[in-house]
Amino acid sequence: MIEYFEQLGDGNVLLLTGLVTGLIFGIFAQQSSFCLRSATIEFWNGKAGEKLAIWLLVFGTAFFLTQLQVFSGSLDTSVIRQLNGSGSLSGAVIGGTVFGIGMILSRGCASRLLVLSGTGNLRALTAGLVLTVAAQASLTGALSPLREWLSSLWLISGNERNLGTWLPLWGGLALSGTFVLVAVADAFKTGIRPWIFLASVMTGLAVALGWYLTNWHHSWSFEVIPVQSVSFTGPSADTLMGLINSPNIEKTFGTGLVPGVFAGSFLAAFVT
Q: Which of 30, 33, 60, 73 could bridge 268 with an S-S bond, Cβ 3.0-4.6 Å?
């Protein structure tokens, strides 16, 4: 089996793993109406409704299945760049605040806008394009010096921000399992429909699947394969710039993920 994927080439394998992950995420995110913005509004209004229950289920499933991989040894966290390099708390706080404001005003975060775009929502498509251009400007364009300066205000090493160093080996699994139980209890209390419950779980599973597939690829490839999962802002910007600047888009997990989510959302909307 590995020999087949070696012949296929690392670029094509990355593209394929991103596409599979994106298809699953897109189909079930569309069916579950998974939306961080809606969940945030319900939480702010003090109303534990269906949208918050869906978000808790998605997050809890992704959290638990990822921690299960870590506990079983099938996911090696030492090769995940995001967890081991220096991190920016100032970037997280400032960027998170700006992201949250934009999410509320544009009526959707990056993932929700992409999912809605796949259903033919032109408002979401336009907002998503604006978000993508702004992201590219922040990553490599005119806004990148400001981003780098803000990120440098408060840096912290990977070990200092790793909660796993304060917990036993099974701590993450126990914590995530408790979160899942709370999410399931809230879902039953809210009375969400069985199909929405299943779609929410499958959306979370897609996140864990992304970690599993990229770590699996990393384990046998002779190239440096980034271990990563579902993320939209950077990959959306890379995909758009690839379409604009080059006849050949770079084959990465992200450039497979974005069209996969779009196609999955379209298929789910078309069938239902």
A: 30
